[in-house]
User: Fold this.
Amino acid sequence: MNILVIGESKNLEEAKTKFGELHQYMLETDHREAERFILSNDLIFDFILDEDPFKVEIYADKENSKVFVNTAKISLAELSNLGNHQIKATLFGFNGLPTFLNREIMEVSVLHPYDLPHIVEISRRLGTDFLQVDDRVGLVTPRIICMIINEAYYTVQEGTATRKDIDTAMKLGTNYPYGPFEWCQRIGVKHVYELLEAVYEDTHDERYKICSLLKKEYLKST
Assistant:
């Protein structure tokens, strides 16, 4: 397949690692530049639309295009609304945060039930299994991992344990590949903060209320 990746070089490398070298890949870092190549590619992975959601308009007249959009921080329904429900391309949501794509199962969402058969065929051609999840901010895995990271920040803020102790305990106790602070570093504090902010705005659930220590680190990083 001819795959257009819209994002950073690390996104391209993650896609290549996940889907293999048998496909032809193209990388564009800017939506306006990428728009010229949408119709000439079989599939688009847009890792950065959440940073400027109004750019969804570039897909308005791309009726036959299949586009995976990183919906960890914004839902397909929100994107459709921003595009005045005039987006002709078929949009799928996927978990495009750093470290999450290259996993055994790809987490995806659809805007309409009739789009699901497209996912089945695309996944077959990409050689990956997939799990359909609800079209909600945070999807499933990012929401859980970022909530754990937030709780770890609360634990450090209260002086209960050190970051190193928490990372070690989580890896040994739960068999996680990384501890919460290691994972935060790999994902990026910016993504963790903004996902939690989006989920809290969506749910007003106190579990996602951002720890002030995490907020402080986010503000220092921006």
Summary: The domain at 141-221 is CATH 1.10.1040.50 (N-(1-d-carboxylethyl)-l-norvaline Dehydrogenase; domain 2).
